[in-house]
Specification:
Strand content: 25-35%
Distance between the termini: 59 Å
Number of helices: 4
Oligomer: single chain
Order of helices and strands: HEHEEHEEEHE
CATH architecture: 2-Layer Sandwich
CATH class: Alpha Beta
Structural class: alpha+beta
Largest sheet: 7 strands, mixed
CATH topology: Alpha-D-Glucose-1,6-Bisphosphate, Chain A, domain 4
Radius of gyration: 22 Å
Number of domains: 1
Helix content: 25-40%
Length: 155
């Protein structure tokens, strides 16, 4: 038995609506571009890469920076980066030194930064950044990594 064009149209509309309802909506979390500019302003950016990944019902976009802030070592660079970011209103939320410090700013709501010493393993899959590090940084151990992402509300 042949289906009328009206019946096909109704069936298509029902299938489309059902698929949209079942698929759910993905929320994207991404920091304000001005936050990225603040991070860039703390030193010489050697490399920058942005990743996104779906976790449950969110698309988390994380930007990772490798920065030369003029420190003599990894820990010294972390301290300098924290001080420079602190001058821009960022405050430590969680401290796990020497590994990392998580920072937040009332100005930027849920946007967060993690500051930690550079580890070459972090850029093994980023040949362009590896090349820039070898070209621009005489002392890679003195670099700092800053990750920027929109964190969950702490309410």
């Amino acid at each position: 038995m042949a289906m009328s064009s009206r019946a096909r149209l109704v069936r298509s509309a029902i299938l489309l609506t059902a698929s949209l309802l079942m698929s759910g909506c993905v929320t994207t979390w991404q920091v304000d571009p001005a936050v990225l500019d603040e991070v860039r302003s703390v030193g010489k950016v050697i490399g920058e890469v942005t990743y996104d990944g779906i976790w449950e019902d969110t698309n988390d976009i994380v930007t990772t920076f490798v920065i030369d802030v003029g420190g003599k070592s990894g820990p010294d660079s972390v301290d300098r980066a924290i001080d420079l970011l602190g001058g821009r209103g960022w405050k430590a939320l969680r401290t796990d030194l020497p590994a990392s410090v998580t920072m937040g700013s009332p100005k930027w709501g849920n946007d967060q930064l993690v500051v930690r010493p550079f580890d070459p393993r972090e850029v093994k899959n980023e040949p362009e950044i590896e090349k820039e590090i070898s070209r621009k940084s005489p002392d890679p151990e003195a670099l700092v990594v800053v990750l920027a992402w929109e964190g969950a509300s702490e309410d």
